[in-house]
Q: What sequence folds into this?
């Protein structure tokens, strides 16, 4: 259910970007929507990721993140533009 809702919201963003900004804004919106949608759809897998190393050899991701928290932040990032627009209109 969350996947369908997030996909619907992303499609609305893309249609609005195409209508109000043309192809350039449409492509920027696609790039901007990849991470929030991925965080919602694959929160558990992203939360399980450990690794990445600094130049000095120490890992900078040392603990797993809860998948539900990753998904929550995905929703925050996905809905933030709509919330900012609603606040500005009020």
A:
């Amino acid at each position: 259910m969350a996947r369908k809702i997030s996909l619907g919201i992303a499609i609305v963003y893309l249609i609005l970007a195409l209508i109000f900004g043309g192809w350039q804004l449409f492509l920027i919106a696609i790039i901007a929507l990849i991470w929030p949608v991925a965080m919602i759809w694959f929160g558990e897998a992203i939360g399980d990721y450990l690794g990445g190393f600094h130049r000095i050899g120490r890992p900078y991701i040392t603990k797993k993140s809860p998948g539900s928290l990753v998904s929550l932040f995905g929703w925050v990032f996905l809905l933030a533009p709509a919330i900012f627009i609603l606040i500005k209109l009020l």
